[in-house]
Write a structure and sequence with these properties.
Helix content is about 30%, strand content about 15%. The chain contains nine helices and nine strands.
């Protein structure tokens, strides 16, 4: 697990930057985070396996608590995963612009470096936290927990988590999300589901993006969809383009792919299991007990 990608570097702690929708200057706060990827050791395969299991078990435990914390607020968290350049940020810009009138929205942006994507989302008036992972190749439950602490999404919100561009490691780490969406563009080739089956097998929805380019490519969209379904017959599959469409297309005249994407989000949002809401802290809700999700204790 991540033995060669560089994210086992213990000196490369992730950096978290908050971009509130109504703030002038971005606030930056550093959080030390024990990113416990096992070190490669040819003579200690059993030890490596044990460490991998421990890291994933710790992550999964926090993810379960985060999921319950979100459900108690009827908040849907959507984990967007893909290779770099598939169009995640462009689709996210379009989505938050079209849906901001109806839903409380927030975004967590994950990249190794820079705040470019967070700045693009913030320009639309949406609160966003940028997580820079340094040499890390994915987000994990602890990073997302810290970002949610900053965002404090209100009741009935939708939180989009744009994961680091990578078709391998993000699939291994549960973030506490309510839905996993994998994007793959028509420019990437039709065989990505076969080359990276674990990622596609984890998806609740696969979005085939940049379909406005199909006339200019030697691509077989039907075959691409067949290969996705071969790896994950249960996943929903939609084709769309987020460009070259009018800004008000979220209405009745919306481009079919975007309309279907928004309808899928509405249906998924309606399936969030609301838990009893008690207390008066944190936007009318009790702050969770230590560890639910983590408070640093």
């Amino acid at each position: 697990m991540c033995e060669t990608c560089g994210c086992d570097d213990p000196t490369a702690a992730p950096r978290l930057t908050s971009f509130p929708a109504d703030a002038g200057e971005a606030g930056r706060s550093g959080h030390e985070h024990p990113h416990e990827h096992p070190l490669a050791d040819a003579d200690a395969d059993d030890r490596t396996l044990h460490l991998e299991q421990r890291v994933l078990a710790k992550n999964d435990d926090l993810a379960r608590r985060t999921r319950a914390w979100l459900a108690a607020r009827n908040v849907l968290a959507v984990n967007l995963m893909s290779s770099p350049g598939s169009g995640k940020t462009t689709l996210l810009e379009r989505t938050v612009r079209d849906l901001a009138e109806g839903w409380p929205l927030a975004v967590v942006e994950g990249d190794q470096e820079s705040a470019r994507d967070a700045e693009r989302i913030r320009a639309g008036g949406i609160p966003v936290v940028q997580i820079n992972t340094g040499r890390g190749c994915h987000l994990d439950a602890d990073m997302v927990d810290r970002a949610l602490r900053v965002l404090e999404p209100p009741v009935d919100a939708v939180v989009f988590v744009e994961n680091v561009g990578n078709l391998v490691c993000p699939a291994l780490f549960d973030l506490g999300e309510g839905a996993r969406v994998v994007l793959t563009s028509v420019t990437e080739g039709e065989d990505k589901p076969l080359k990276y089956p674990h990622m596609f097998a984890q998806a609740d929805l696969v979005l085939l993006t940049k379909c406005d380019l199909v006339p200019f490519l030697a691509v077989d969209v039907d075959r691409n969809i067949r290969l996705i379904r071969r790896v994950n017959p249960a996943a929903d599959v939609l084709t769309l383009s987020a460009l070259h469409l009018p800004a008000d297309s979220a209405g009745a005249d919306a481009e079919p792919g975007l309309s279907a994407w928004y309808a899928w989000l509405r249906a998924r949002r309606a399936r969030v299991d609301p838990r009893p809401r008690t207390g008066a802290g944190g936007r009318g809700l009790a702050r969770p007990a230590p560890g639910s999700p983590s408070t640093g204790n």
